[in-house]
């Protein structure tokens, strides 16, 4: 039997007692052909029904009734669709957690084909009532939207119900997790406290070179080129949660590409080179003490026993040391922000800041550092005006006087 094109249909008799109007629809996620059918008592009624189905199909309003729940549909989306779209393991884990903790409790038992915008609004309101931040609520709404796009493609829904709900706005008094970046004085104070500690290296690379914590814990010695005074950032690592079949979670260390999927090279200053040389010598002494099996993958930062650090180890340890010494604690990602802000304050061009931080686009860098970009712009305008003024010749000044 020849496969029919999407939107085509046929009328045929079944069991000599009833007539079937059948319309071919888009294949499902597995490429299996799907057909919308109606059972009628006569051929003329079946022909009429087929015409109505074709009209609905052309209007993109034709759907297939399904008993698949949101919970079942989300599992299929996570396991069968996202892995084939190049989604990173860390992103997939985040989707899995958001669906498990925030979407399923509200919508999991509802049929996908029954979802309306009212259900989406109820979900958003429930998350707000739980005290979740606007960013988390937006994230859950965005994941639901992406998931239901597949339901629209499979004709389980005529339109995505998330699209008919308003964007979630932050309230003026909502607190943000982002903390004020360190000043140059604060950076020097922290470096003085951390000198010689196991946290000095990770702090240096985040606040002086703008590395992400995942890039720090993934760093290996083959990326450090002392003679060339360069540092290559080629990978990231993270410990991500994974949901098991018995509804329990486990944690896996996953290696992947950088966030922007591209390698970058950073220049090492004399201070950073001195630190890394001394740090490598200290590691060599530990390797001699514990044997050749110590740190087999040659990570730059490890525990005393040669195992690579997890981000949480550095986060909790660094926080403990700083608070104990009366210093302000900020998030690890805000250390990266500190690098960007201080670079702009030092007069570094925004394009160079983009390269240092490894942002995929210049707009992303401007969005984060817009205030500092404006400050740099103001300095540039004043400097240009001063330069023009100093270049004025006496004859030119005289010629610009207005004659009365």
Write up this protein.
The protein has about 400 residues and is mainly alpha-helical. It has three domains: about 10-60; about 70-165, DNA polymerase, domain 1 (Orthogonal Bundle), CATH 1.10.150; about 185-380, hpI Integrase, Chain A (Orthogonal Bundle), CATH 1.10.443. It has helices spanning about 45-60, 70-80, 90-105, 115-130, 135-155, 185-195, 200-210, 215-220, 270-290, 310-325, 330-345, 350-355, 360-370, 370-390, 395-400; strands at about 10-15, 20-25, 35-40, 225, 230-235, 235-245, 250-255, 265. The strands form three sheets. A three-stranded antiparallel β-sheet has the order 1-2-3, covered by helices on one side. A three-stranded antiparallel β-sheet has the order 4-5-8, with no helix packed on it. Helix 2 (about 70-80) packs antiparallel against helix 3 and helix 12 packs across helix 13. The model is unreliable at about 395-404 (pLDDT under 50).
């Amino acid at each position: 039997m020849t496969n029919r094109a999407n939107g085509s249909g046929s009328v045929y008799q079944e069991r000599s007692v009833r007539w079937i109007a059948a319309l071919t629809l888009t294949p499902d996620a597995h490429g299996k052909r799907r057909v919308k059918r109606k059972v009628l008592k006569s051929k003329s009624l079946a022909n009429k029904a087929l015409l109505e189905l074709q009209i609905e199909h052309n209007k993109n309003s034709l759907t297939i009734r399904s008993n698949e729940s949101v919970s079942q549909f989300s599992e299929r989306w996570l396991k069968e669709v996202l892995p084939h779209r190049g989604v990173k393991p860390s992103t997939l884990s985040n989707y899995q957690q958001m669906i498990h903790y925030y979407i399923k409790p509200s919508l999991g038992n509802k049929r996908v084909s029954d979802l309306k915008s009212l259900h989406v609004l109820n979900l958003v309101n429930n998350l707000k009532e739980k005290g979740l931040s606007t960013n988390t609520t937006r994230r859950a709404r965005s994941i639901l939207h992406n998931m239901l796009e597949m339901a629209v493609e499979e004709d389980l829904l005529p339109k995505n119900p998330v699209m008919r709900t308003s964007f979630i706005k932050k309230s003026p008094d909502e607190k943000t997790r982002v903390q004020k970046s360190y000043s140059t004085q604060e950076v020097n104070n922290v470096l003085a406290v951390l000198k010689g500690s196991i946290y000095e290296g990770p702090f240096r690379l985040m606040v002086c070179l703008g590395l992400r914590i995942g890039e720090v814990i993934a760093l290996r010695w083959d990326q450090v080129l002392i003679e060339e005074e360069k540092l290559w950032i080629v990978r990231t690592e993270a410990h991500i949660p994974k949901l098991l079949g018995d509804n329990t979670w486990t944690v896996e260390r996953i290696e992947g590409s950088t966030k922007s999927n591209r390698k970058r090279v950073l220049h090492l200053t004399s201070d950073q080179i001195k630190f890394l040389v001394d740090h490598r010598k200290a590691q060599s002494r530990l390797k001699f003490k514990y044997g050749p099996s110590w740190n087999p993958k040659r990570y730059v930062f490890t525990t005393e026993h040669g195992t690579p650090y997890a981000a949480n180890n550095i986060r909790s340890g660094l926080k403990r040391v700083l608070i104990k010494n009366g210093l302000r604690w900020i998030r690890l990602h805000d250390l990266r922000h500190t690098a960007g802000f201080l670079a702009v304050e030092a007069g570094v061009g925004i394009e160079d800041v983009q390269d240092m931080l490894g942002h995929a686009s210049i707009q992303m860098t401007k969005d984060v550092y817009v205030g500092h970009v404006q400050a740099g712009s103001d300095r540039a305008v004043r400097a240009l005006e001063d330069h023009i003024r100093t270049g004025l010749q006496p004859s030119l000044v005289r010629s610009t006087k207005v004659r009365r």
